[in-house]
Design brief:
This protein is an alpha/beta fold. Helix content is 38%, strand content 21%.
Length: 209
């Protein structure tokens, strides 16, 4: 990575971590994917039950494979014939993994969901939520975070999963009401009432969409 970008990301990461702390959430900064993986694993005790939503960032740092290979009870919804059962198991898991579609410099997390299994588990249920977030997802404020989530993350995810929505043809949010829309629920996490529940691992390298 360009050293100027690395320095900027580190400085901004410190600001985001301070913002998270003011919201009763804990942040960590990792310069690269390898360090992000080490931090994430340090937050997940061996023997824990762990599940996740569609967090591509967790795959990109190697966390999902490490959990499958390690001494963890990883609930892999892709391996379940009954997908609903796998999603319901998330609410009683020790750890839920997620990323964010966007977040603000002062620590607000923004997520959009279609089935709501991801945003509902972030809001309530699992004992601990660990976010893996690339610095490319950090925006100045809530307005720009919402715009990023809707106009960058959502269209790319719609293309990724093959939905028949206008954004897959235009590349930007059309505020549609298509039956295939993945923009059904919006979750803004601005504070955690439960100390030590939400942890955010910021990565200096780009992750996800």
């Amino acid at each position: 990575m360009n050293p100027n970008i690395a320095k900027r990301n580190g400085l901004l990461g410190a600001k985001v971590i301070k913002g998270l702390a003011s919201r009763n959430m804990t942040g960590y900064y990792a310069a690269d994917k390898a360090e992000a993986l080490r931090i994430a694993l340090s937050l997940i005790p061996e023997g824990s039950s762990v599940t996740m939503g569609g967090a591509m960032s967790a795959h990109e740092i190697g966390l999902v494979q490490a959990l499958k290979d390690g001494n963890y009870n990883f609930i892999d919804r892709d391996a379940y014939e009954d997908k609903r059962a796998a999603m319901l198991a998330a609410y009683d898991a020790d750890v839920f993994l997620s990323s964010a579609n966007a977040m603000t410099e002062d620590g607000i997390l923004v997520n959009i969901d279609g089935n709501a299994n991801r945003v509902s588990a972030i809001a309530q249920g699992p004992r601990k939520v660990v976010f893996i977030v690339g610095m490319n997802k950090v925006t100045p404020d809530l307005d720009t975070a919402m715009k990023r989530a809707r106009n960058v993350a959502a269209p790319i995810n719609a293309v990724r999963i093959g939905t028949d929505t206008p954004c897959t043809r235009t590349g930007t949010c059309m505020d549609c009401k298509s039956p295939d829309t993945i923009c059904c629920q919006f979750l803004i996490t601005r504070f955690s009432r439960h100390k030590d529940r939400i942890h955010v691992v910021l990565c200096g390298e780009d992750l996800g969409f």
